[in-house]
Amino acid sequence: MSHGFELAPAKGPAVPDNPALAKVSGLLDRINRGLLILSMVALIVTALVLTYSVVSRYFFKVATDWQDEASVFMLVGVTFFCAAYVQSYRGHIGIEALGELLPQAVNRVRLIAVDLFSMLFCAFFSWKSWTLFHEALVEGQTTTSTFAPPLWIPYSIMAFGMTLLCLQLLVQLAARLTNRRGNHD
User: Is there a contact between 25 and 175 (Cβ–Cβ < 8 Å)?
Assistant: First the structure.
């Protein structure tokens, strides 16, 4: 559990005991790290685009109608591309107070239920994102601005990111069910 700034770097994603799951987990880790690097670059580019927009409007009175949507698209990418990476470290919000109060066997069931329900929710979200992507692609949907970028771009990012998060949750759930008693993450 984290209470603020950590002095030591994170240990990394837990490696499942099952060799097949460990290979899948390793592949997911490599994909997540690649998307993390891409997301870091996108975040810097977003900052530069927004800075350019402010400077060009203030000093040169030039309207930029593209920067808002480009920035939003990149921030959507950062958010959804990094979700599985954060989950691999179990960095999403969790309630730890119950874990301290419950018996170990009950807490194990609680953690399995949380992983299962989280995965089911993310699977539904992923499915809806893929349907939005398909509709936007087939119907040629765009935003309502004069820039009018295609909506399949953010929808595909959402769908891919949520699918990756589902896979991460599935691997972690399977690891929780198959790992030896002492290694639950």
Answer: yes
Maximal C-alpha separation, the chain: 65
State residue 179 phi and psi, 5-degree precision: -70, 155
62 token code pair:
């030039």
- 63 CB-near residues (< 8 Å, 6+ apart): 57
How far is residue 105's CA from residue 120's CA, in Å, rounded to a whole number?
Answer: 23
pLDDT digit of tens for each residue in the chain (185 aa)?
455 566 666 677 888 899 999 999 999 999 999 999 999 999 999 999 999 999 998 999 888 889 999 999 999 999 999 999 999 998 877 767 777 888 988 988 988 999 999 999 999 999 999 999 999 999 999 999 888 999 999 999 999 999 999 999 999 999 999 987 655 55
Q: What is the pTM of this model?
A: 0.87
Residue length, the chain?
185
* Spatial CA neighbour of 154 closest among 179, 175, 133, 138: 133
